[in-house]
Amino acid sequence: MSTEYSHEFNSLLAGEISAVETYDLALKRDFSADLVDMLMRCRDSHSARVDKLVNCVLGSGGTPDESGGAFGAFAQVVQNSQSSAHDALSQLELFEAERLVQYENARSFVPEEVKQVIDTDLLPMQHETHLMVSTALRQINPLPAQ
Questions:
Q1: Residue-wise pLDDT tens for the chain (146 aa)?
Q2: Domain limits at 126?
Q3: CATH no. for residue 100?
Q4: Residue 134 located in a structural domain
Q5: What distance in Å separates the CA atoms of residue 80 and residue 49, rounded to the nearest whole number?
């Protein structure tokens, strides 16, 4: 891979580092054991994506970023400002949905080598974590019957 891809991979890496930071903050909340287990699985999934992207940056001859940048600062503000565990879970669901949209949008402008990593690794894992958090949120706060 060429070093020209390291910028794109680092951009994706910052978002995943931020996701791990966000889950670390969320796990400090008072959640049930089932929710803690689900949150840990989501955090571990994002951590695996960090590892994948670090390897991609290194493989492209670049130096991996080590922080979530502006994404990380946002995550901290959002998680620290929530008034309840339910609100924190709602923010996590929104965060997961936004990551999904970011990956979908990135597919249209990144080089083919980066798109392949998105399609093969990142996007399927993102769908999974979004589904887990969305399902947990619906179980806590089910939609009204129609």
A1: 456 789 899 999 999 999 999 899 888 888 889 999 999 999 999 999 999 999 999 999 999 988 766 555 445 555 555 567 778 888 899 999 999 999 999 999 999 999 999 999 999 999 999 999 999 988 876 656 55
A2: 3-140
A3: 1.20.1260.10
A4: yes
A5: 24
Q: Tokens 């960090």 — which residue?
A: 50
Residue count of the chain, please give it. 146
